[in-house]
């Protein structure tokens, strides 16, 4: 596949979603054997793999290809607990076995049904995710944390009635399953969110009654809790966020204290628990993605250029996008194998996915890719496991 050749060892692939029936080797016990049941329940320790030390057993499980992890999680509670832990991902990273997959949320032509579909860095499809809980929503936020996808808040639509929600759901990419996490303190939609230093931040947006928000909160996965932090200096909505050098950057969108779209960048320092301000942000951003220490944006007013923000010196550079025809073609961004993917919103057959490689030699940065969502792309995330 053009532009997406990886030097990683390709592991055996199989279907992402499948069922498994496991017969464990424990003998049958009748109801008349309470003594046996009591002896088993009183022993809290169960080895991961009988006959092996747990540290060796963990290495063995970490060697399993990503496509087989959901089945592995069905073997036992001990295996499932380990596979969903941060330690599992840490071991796979140390072994150089992390596999990068791209998750694309698409919606049908009528705008009624959406689903997540998955592709690896070789362009292979891995089926669809189980249906996302919480019903049809708009204005929600998505963040990747410790190999898991978080879908946060948003505005639910039911029988023509819209209402903001504070619900948060987590997709475990290892176990191919959804679960519900602690709700946010404030129901909101059209807000900014990002991961910084292992914690998730949600900022601004609209409240349940449609009032613009300046409130912000942070989520700690270890204790499954949202905590309010210092608010923005002004309400802000329709914005986006990203993390650089341990700080949270909020830009784009609109503010009630500015005429039109805001060019201000709000920067939050978690160590100082305070906000500061910059004045050289993008406006009317239609797509954005972070790759390394750089932020890639596309502004509505000029969809033939990439605006690239360098966090090391807070500077912007512009790169022309090789497109023909309408200047309002529009794109959604994705990140895969260290490259930026541009998915055209125009579904004409001649519209190909563009690939930008920031490390390529000058003049050869742009290519096309065969990776393409099946419908209109709403957003994408990249998860390494």
From TrEMBL:
Family matches, as InterPro entries: F-box-like_dom_sf, F-box_dom, Kelch-typ_b-propeller, Kelch_1
Entry-linked SUPFAM superfamilies: F-box domain (SSF81383), Kelch motif (SSF117281)
Keywords: Kelch repeat, Repeat
Keyword Repeat part of the UniProt annotation: yes
Coiled coil: none
Keyword check for Transport: no
Pfam families: F-box, Kelch_KLHDC2_KLHL20_DRC7
Signal peptide: none
F-box domain: residues covered: 52-92
Protein name: F-box domain-containing protein
Species: Carnegiea gigantea
Taxon lineage: Eukaryota, Viridiplantae, Streptophyta, Embryophyta, Tracheophyta
């Amino acid at each position: 596949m053009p532009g997406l050749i990886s030097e990683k060892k390709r592991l055996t692939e199989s279907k992402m979603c499948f069922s498994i029936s496991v017969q464990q080797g424990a003998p049958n016990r009748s109801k008349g054997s309470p003594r046996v049941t009591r002896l088993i329940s009183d022993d809290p320790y169960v080895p991961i793999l009988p006959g092996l030390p747990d540290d060796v057993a963990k290495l063995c499980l970490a060697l399993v290809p990503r496509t087989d992890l959901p089945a592995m999680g069905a073997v036992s509670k001990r295996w499932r607990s380990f596979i969903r832990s941060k330690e599992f991902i840490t071991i796979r990273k140390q072994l150089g076995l992390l596999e990068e997959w791209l998750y694309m949320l698409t919606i049908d032509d009528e705008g009624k049904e959406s689903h997540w579909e998955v592709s690896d860095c070789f362009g292979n499809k891995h089926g669809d995710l189980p249906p996302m809980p919480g019903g049809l929503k708009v204005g929600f936020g998505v963040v990747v944390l410790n190999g898991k996808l978080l879908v946060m808040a948003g505005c639910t639509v039911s029988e023509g009635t819209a209402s903001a929600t504070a619900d948060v759901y987590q997709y475990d990419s290892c176990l191919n399953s959804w679960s519900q996490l602690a709700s946010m303190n404030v129901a909101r939609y059209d807000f900014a969110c990002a991961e910084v230093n292992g914690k998730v931040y949600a900022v601004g947006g609209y409240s349940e009654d449609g009032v613009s928000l300046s409130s912000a909160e942070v989520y700690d996965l270890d204790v499954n809790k949202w905590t309010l932090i210092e608010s923005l200096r002004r309400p802000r909505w329709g914005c986006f966020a990203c993390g650089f050098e341990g700080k949270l950057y909020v830009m784009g969108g609109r503010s009630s204290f500015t005429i039109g779209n805001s060019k201000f960048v709000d920067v939050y320092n978690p160590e100082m628990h305070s906000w500061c301000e910059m004045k050289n942000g993008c406006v009317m951003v239609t797509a954005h993605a972070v790759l390394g220490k750089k932020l890639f944006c596309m502004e509505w007013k000029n969809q033939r250029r990439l605006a690239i923000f360098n966090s090391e010196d807070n500077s912007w550079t512009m790169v022309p996008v090789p497109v023909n025809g309408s200047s309002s073609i529009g794109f959604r961004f994705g990140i895969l194998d260290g490259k930026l993917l541009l998915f055209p919103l125009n579904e004409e057959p001649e519209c190909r996915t563009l690939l930008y490689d920031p490390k390529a030699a000058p003049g050869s940065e742009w290519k096309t890719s065969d990776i393409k969502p099946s419908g209109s792309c709403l957003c994408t995330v990249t998860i390494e496991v």
